[in-house]
Amino acid sequence: MFKRVIFENWAFIVSMACFAFTVLFYGVMVTRTMLMKKEKREHLAALPLED
Length: 51
Description:
mainly alpha; 69% helix
């Protein structure tokens, strides 16, 4: 009466999509950091992290 649901394919697709999103996110962050201007890097480096 009910069709069999195969979860293995969905688990693979979801895990690969999450991995691709993570790689893309970190790639964008590294690219933005590498292209940051020197003045902006120095400003961010001089910010106080504690009060």
